[in-house]
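Encode chain A's predicted structure.
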Amino acid sequence: MPVTDYVKPEGLYRPRGFVHVAVATGAKAVEIGGQISVDVNDQLQHPGDYAGQTELALRNVVRAAEGAGARVSDIAKLRIYIVDYRPEINDEVFGGFGAAVAATGLRVPAMLVLGISALAFEGALVEIDATAYC
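Encoded structure for chain A:
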């Protein structure tokens, strides 16, 4: 079964671009490993471009979920890791995020966004992993 409800608990701050709580029921949990902006030929796409890398990484998350039998509506949690994060790149990162959301129909779930110093794949600026329930 998919994510069944998104909850806005009273007394918490207004989320900006995510929800505080996603409630899911069902028997199958799908853990999607970190996805980056790499195409099917193992080539990094959008070097130096936070927006482009975010968009492709999120599209890859959706492809991975679908490959495991989950639907986009089953995605309950995203964790986004951003190299050299600083507030002034928010518009770029979340512009790419918004483009992928529009293209895939993802309803923005609970999220964690972390700034980190580096990723294992050289040149990657954004990595996204996820949990889905179906």
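The longest strand covers residues 75-83.
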